[in-house]
Fold this protein.
Amino acid sequence: MNAEIIAVGTEILLGNIVNTNAQYLSEKLSELGINVYYQSVVGDNPDRLKSCLKQAMERADLLLITGGLGPTQDDLTKETAAELMGFSLEMHEPSLERMRAYFQAVNRPMTPNNKKQAMMPKGATVLKNDCGTAPGCMMERDGKIMILLPGPPIEMKTMYEGYVRPLLLQKSDSVISSRTMRLFGIGESRAESLIADLIRESENPSIAPYAKLCEVHLRLTAKAETEEKAEQMLDETEGKVSELLGQYCYGYDEDTLQTVAVHTLMEQGKTLAVAESCTGGMIAKMITEVSGSSRVFTHGFVTYANEAKEQMLGVKHSALERFGAVSETVAMQMCRGAKEKSGADFALSVTGIAGPGGGTDKKPVGLVYIGLATSNGVRCKKLLLSGSRDKIRTQTAMNALAMLLEELK
Amino acid sequence: MNAEIIAVGTEILLGNIVNTNAQYLSEKLSELGINVYYQSVVGDNPDRLKSCLKQAMERADLLLITGGLGPTQDDLTKETAAELMGFSLEMHEPSLERMRAYFQAVNRPMTPNNKKQAMMPKGATVLKNDCGTAPGCMMERDGKIMILLPGPPIEMKTMYEGYVRPLLLQKSDSVISSRTMRLFGIGESRAESLIADLIRESENPSIAPYAKLCEVHLRLTAKAETEEKAEQMLDETEGKVSELLGQYCYGYDEDTLQTVAVHTLMEQGKTLAVAESCTGGMIAKMITEVSGSSRVFTHGFVTYANEAKEQMLGVKHSALERFGAVSETVAMQMCRGAKEKSGADFALSVTGIAGPGGGTDKKPVGLVYIGLATSNGVRCKKLLLSGSRDKIRTQTAMNALAMLLEELK
């Protein structure tokens, strides 16, 4: 099955927003083994919209169309698509009812305009909108499938996951499951070369590596008659991959270094403090992104100035003078101080030169020291990173979290 | 002039990357007054690429094509586009020379494949790549213009700014200048209603409001014979806008609350400390995003746990017990403590409930207190925010920075 993804909206053509919907749907369809040959964007203009949809119907079997389901005169997707597919519109009472309830819940009046959103193609499968007003729908005729989804990403994603994916799976005689292994501490080319034979041999499940900042993601995708069988196949392939790369795998799918770190600390009943210089609060911010992190994260010391390092962490003035703020000695004194002052079980520290200014020959931009204090003492890691200020800071934060995870294992 | 933006790359159709190039170019073309009617994405497939380009030539005068200029067999954009425009390829010696120098500089061998990148359409305007290897080009024939740009965003943007924009401006008999006023503390609909007459009356310069998280951006765009005249028109219109909304305007164009805050502190020779509970380091992280912030930002206290608030900031145990951590009293004690411990001229504090858990009837998710300590004493602001955890935290951080800016004025 070949698909085309079409986004409708003048705000995309004006560059006011990025079309992230297309990326999301492309990724999801590719997981189902559906080929996407084109993505298109067209404005809220009836003629151009019509010609765009018409052409897509000629070159694809499945059209996923996002946007233009709103209540205003501008929103024409449903009317245009239904006309092209030969469907007439009628009031869809359950949707109208649901919208009435929605407006009551958010305590806003429902305008006559909104009723337009409940007009649906007669004979289409109506798709419920669990996060907003505009319902979506699926129309099917002469081997062509057209699926209309709302434009706001949260509404679109919720509708896709809840209603579209199951419908698309029904069209297939097989089930597709995928799993992403998240690796840290190894580059893409090295990861790929270590499992090159495995990638070559594996058609089903397939193995696809993706390079991310500091990480490599391996997506395993299996096609089978049942979900159970597919999962079993994924388990087997994961086992083979793990023999070669298991030591680098810190999590799966939506896991991040910070979620895994926080959850592992919770399980072990341990607490963490962080002392940051060059990352300036980024590590604390990442940890506290995780809901419930308050149970394990106690103190964050953002010691950007040398005086703050001395005052807040008890770093020795002589160490700062002799070795400089970016040094192994200071990194170790920082995490030791953070552990003592906070009473936490673990303390991480980072000090480095994030750039773009401040580098010297001896201490170039990208030089970073990470310290970790545990009940067994203090360790330090030296890194030489490259990239923009933001990239160096992000890599530093990720490496610090990875160092903690290693310890927690 | 009507334009179409085409991105070439199977990795976009697989959903591996988001097509941010299209958004960037759409925005830039719209600033020049060029209408973008379609954006398209097509894979590295010769037939589909050809049919996509052919169609675009029928419906647009100007084609901007990104991607597919790489050294491998897959990269076919140049060959396909040149054929359609009736140009033959020839070795472009200056590009070859530049690539040789590039590879020497990065100390990597130049492969025969790379030479393919220096083959350019004969008679085209070659566009230098200042950040990578693949040059771009502009072909012109029979009133159609085709511009090929590399896919990596940094290379594409640098080439657009340096070489494409000037060429497009030459095609126009007028100059277009724009300026964005950044407003904080007012909603989009209120901002829009206050300047409704002005928007209606203003065709040149035009005024377009954009709603962002916590901010409203007003883009003023002027068209004139000279840059000077355009800037003068912008000044005039900005003056009229400022009469009505000036109090909300904190900066222009690429300014952010944190860059303006850091630069204002620098100018005034003042220092800042921050004490964060619910934002967990986000404010410190935002401030330290600004290069040079080390001159004004001294201490960051991330006091997620109550004990940390007592220990690090001297918040009274009795206050925490009586009023709870999320209270005006604690917010004020936090910033007072941060100012005292750090010796900074200003100290900001935030405490609140970021959710999704932890809310009660009396203290719902989104309740936030922001404190500010100055040499004149301590003030506090209460906010009721809504949205996801991340959104509440971001809004809190932005409001805290805005409160500081107000004080600095």
